Amino acid sequence: MYDCLLEDNPAQFDTAATPVARPVTLAWSGFRLEKHYAGRSWARFSVRRDDDYGVLSRLREAALYLGCEVDRLDDGSIVVVGLTLNETLALSERFGERLAVEATLAGQARF
To answer: How many angstroms separate the CA atoms of 74 and 63, rounded?
Structure first.
């Protein structure tokens, strides 16, 4: 009955080559973020590749230095809340090549 399982073929038992599924999380869309941070300016930064998490942590430190509120989302991205227009542009210019950026400015513009 189990004659297809040969003991001399260890490749058929190799689980390292099997891709591991990531846990399913509720996606943070722009609409959901606008609803959650209603009336506040925010920018969401997420990694484009798996090796960009170091860049994401450097962005977090820069946002904390600017005095902004930083929230980590369950999908691995971060939201920086309370940015001005110039701060949003500076962060997206500095980190926008390696990180995906989505932002909304609310209220009166502060320069």
So the answer is: 19
